[in-house]
Each structure stands twice: as structure tokens, then as C-alpha cells.
Design brief:
single chain, mainly alpha, about 80% helix, elongated
Length: about 80
């Protein structure tokens, strides 16, 4: 990743908050923990899918090849190809 800026700092901060939340959830009753994890999974899956599609589209507009995008996303170029079709 490139140099640090406001958005990278915000991403790092959110990752720390999520780690703290996971530690707190470990103390919750199992039913509450499972419900919370389901809620988080739905929210993050939607957010991630939308952000991923937008980022892939932007990268393709800048001329990035599928393998470069895949490397940045830590997935296969075939997965990226499917997302761009």
C-alpha cells in the first residue's frame, strides 16, 4: 500500500475497532453473539461487495489488468473477470 493518508488511517482504525468488538463479543451469551455476527456479516458483505465492484471498475478504467486487480484484492483473476462481466 502507498503512503499513509486520512482514508488509510481510518481503515486501520476501523480494523482495530473490529478486533476490539470481537474480543467483546467473546464475552456475550452465545445467542447474542451469533445474532450480532449475523448482523455484522450482512452489513459488511453488502458494503464490501459494493465497494469492491466500484474499485474494480475504477481500476479497469485506469487500465489495470485483471491479475493486478486480483493481486490487490487477494483473489484470483478469474474471480475479478466474473465480477467485471
Amino acid at each position: 500500500m502507498s503512503h499513509s493518508n486520512d482514508w488509510t488511517t481510518a481503515v486501520d482504525e476501523q480494523a482495530r475497532h473490529l478486533n476490539d468488538l470481537c474480543d467483546q463479543l467473546a464475552q456475550a451469551p452465545v445467542a447474542d453473539r451469533l445474532h450480532a455476527l449475523g448482523t455484522l456479516n450482512e452489513a459488511f458483505a453488502d458494503l464490501y461487495a459494493c465497494a469492491q465492484r466500484e474499485a474494480i471498475h475504477a481500476a479497469r478504467e485506469e487500465g489495470w489488468p485483471l491479475r493486478r486487480i486480483a493481486g490487490a484484492l487477494k483473489c484470483s483473476h478469474e474471480q475479478v473477470r466474473i465480477l467485471t462481466s
